[in-house]
Every structure is written in structure tokens, then in C-alpha cells.
Amino acid sequence: MDFYVDAPQKEVYYGNTFPNQPNTTFNYIPGSKKIALVSYFLKTDTLSLYRFTVIVDDIPLKINQSFEGMPVTKRMFDEKFNNVDLGIYNIANKSLTVLLYKIGKPDKIYKSIYYAKPIRAAKIEYFTKNYMDDNGDRGWTADPKNRAEITLSKKNSALNIIKNKADFDFLYDITIKEKESKQIIFKSTAWNYENSYYDEAKDDFLPFVSVDKKIFKKSGDYEIIIEPQLIWDIPQKLKDKYVTKHILNISVEEESFTKKELISSGILFSIIIGGITGGLAVYIKNKQARKKIAEQAEQKEIAKLQLDSVRSQLNPHFLFNALAGIQTLMNKNEIDNANRYLTKFARLTRNVLDHKELISLTSEKTLLDDYLQMEQLRFGFQYQITASPDLDVENIEIPAMLLQPFVENAVKYGISEKGNDGKIEISFTKAGTDLVLSVKDNGDGFDTAKDYAGLGLALTKNRISLLNSIYKETPFLLDMKADTTGTLIQITINQWL
Fold first, then answer.
1. Could you tell me the pLDDT band of residue 288, with boundaries at 50, 70 and 90?
2. Where are the domains of the chain?
3. Residue 260 contacts by C-beta under 8 Å, 6 or more apart in sequence?
4. pLDDT tens column, 302-311
5. How far, CA to CA in Å, does 288 sit from each of 156, 182, 262?
6. What is the pTM for the complete model shown?
7. Whose CA is closest to 125, among 238, 226, 250, 230?
């Protein structure tokens, strides 16, 4: 991608890339009012295989548009390339995003962002502390008013730093220094959203970074610095207005046993009776138990990170397929249906990109309703979603988008060719303490023992495997049955209710 703007060259900072955002380029153009976009291709490329989408702020202007038939000119300084003009856009105080992808590779989307708004300095909202109690249960505590000093006790495992929400949080990195020595002890660009502070005004979760307690070797003052990481050549005085600095006094309590802990572990009893050997044995046993709990907690955190990765791969896969649906309707000149499809797509996109891992059965039904109503505009099938009356659908939660890939599979490979004769039935039922989720279609079926290349199905199987490593007490069981009369997918979540 290339671009031309009406701002002076000294106000254009282009080609910024970030390790935590693969295939993404960020261009900061604060003085720009108009932008012209150009895409370059090798002369050997087949333009009909490529698609692009243009979004200004949150409004899509061009969706899943093909390069085929667009005017092509030679690149002036390289005979190997042709260029295609993508148009001129008003960008004053706006953000423009271009998504470029190739048919058959929905998991590899190239994103170019052109940001003409002023970048704001980050704001630290408040701090929280993770803890683990004597039973191994985890949680967090917060004191929004205490922004000058924090005490990390022996039960605290990490300090969380929560910042305000920005248009693009991945721009900002966070550094922590010992104030006295100026030594950097922590640096990260990996902002997290899960189980974070909920901002009611924005109806969203604020990003945070979790800092292991072990980073803080001693009590004292620490400097927290949050700044956007851009390749820009500006004086330090100007750059300082984008930088947030905060001094936090951290008191680190030394590990020690309380009297109650000494009694419960047998150490005090051993001292009283003079049994040094017995006391040592109890200490070693407790140490091994704590180590096992820590290892289990670490494995659970790793599984959660892997689960986030799988979810992040499902999102572009789903969005690509949905955009293809809009293109199909437009190619058929069904403009009204395309507009209705796009309206449903907007709300559905918001739900799909939500970072919540668990959502209510009601929210899952709403998501599936929106998706199936969209696809009805293309294929004309019938569908039904039911829930047992003994289920509290408002309060029972399941992993978000658990059924959507199977429903998408039922539409695409099951009933897309049947028209009005196609039928999909989705049900939420209770079986004792188990929750049973079913997707049934009357398509031609498929070989359930065979591994298919479909990205959504493969990622969902991987996701269920990761869920089982987190929710070991409530295993997820996947059962697939298919014949020439249709396909039945069942997910049973044991002891979930």
C-alpha cells in the first residue's frame, strides 16, 4: 500500500509496525484532510483473487471489493509492478483503515491504518492487586483512590496497571523503572482486557497490564511510563506531551509465617515438642503443595492465553465469510437485501469482536439470530432456536461464539443449496446438571471422521480442547453425527448447571 496526503511531509510518520500486531501498518498523519490510496501488485498477480475493505472511523465505505476491472497503471520507478488507485477520501480528524486479503487465505489479513486525529497521552485509571488465598482461590482487589502508594503482601501475586481506552491500544507500551537507579525492570506492549475494569460510559472493558510481584525486588519508588511507540522525528519537548509518567511507592512485604500458619502447618507443634525433624517434613510438604498450586495456576494462565489466540483467529475468519455474503448480494443486484444484511452485520461485528470469554445463553441466542437472519437473505432456509423452560437463560453463561462455527458450517455445507427446504434447529437443553447445546440441519451430511480444511471447525475443536484444560471439573464433550438425512452436532458441558 502507498498513500498521498495534503499535509506537509514533516507531519507524516509512516510505516510504523508493532510486534503485537502482525500484518498491521500504522501511519500517523495528524495534519491531513484528504488522502489518496494506491495498492501495488506484481504484474504476475491475478487481481481477481484479491479483495479490499475501506473503513472510516467505524463506518465501512467499501466492503469486500474486488480489484478486478479497476484501472491499472505502471509503476513509474519499477517495471515489475502495477498500481491500482483505491480512491480519495476525506480524513480530517478521522481514522481510515484498509483491509487487504486474498481469497482462500482469510486468516491472513493485511491492515493499513491512517490516523489523522491527535494521539492522546494515556491515563492511568487505577491499580489492582492479584491475590491467592489459603485455598488456592484467585481474585483481585482495587483501591482507585490510592494512586501514590501500594503495598504488595505475601498473598499478592501481581500488580495490575489499568489505563483508559484508546482508539488503538497497541500503540502504547509501558515501562517501569526503579526511580533511584533509573534501571528498567519491566517493559510490555501486551495489553489485556479479560476480567478487567468495566467502563459503563463506553460499555467496554479497559486495557490493563499485569506485572509479576517478583519484578519488584525491594520497597521504594518506581516510575511508570506509558507512551506511544512511533517512528517520528520530533523534539523531545514535543514528544513529552504524549508521554504519561507516574511515580508509585511500592512496599513489598517479606514472606513470613503467621502464628496461625505455624500452628496449621505443624511447625509450632514441632517446636514445642522439640521435633525439628517433624517440623522440617511438614515445611517441605507445604512447600511442595504451594509449588503444585503455582504450577497449576501457571498452566491455567497459559491455556487462557492460547484460548485468546484461537478466539482472535476465529474473528477474521468469521468476518471474511460475512463480507463475502454481502458481496454475493451486491453481485446479484439485491441492494435492499444487502443493506439489511449490512445492518445485521454491524451489530454482529460488535458482538463478535467483544473480548468477553463468557456470555449468557440469551446473548448467544441473539448472536446466532443475527447471523442466521443475515444468511436467510442469501439462501432462504428456515431455522428455529429453542431453550428448555427450566433453563435460566439470562444467568447461565457459556464461552462466547461456541456454537457459531458449527452453525456457519451447517449453512455453508448443509442447507445452502436447499433454498426454502433447508432447515436448521438449535436447542439449549438441561440434562440433570449437564448443559446440552445442539445444532441440527437437514443437509446431505459429511464424514465426521475426516479432517477438513475448514478453518472455523478446526479452530473450534482446538478451542474445546483448551476449554477442557481450564474447566477440568466441567469437561466439554463434542459429538458429531451425520448421514444423508442431515447432521447433528452436540456439545455437552458436564456439571455446568
1. low
2. 2-115, 124-256, 310-493
3. none
4. 544 444 544 4
5. 19, 37, 16
6. 0.50
7. 226
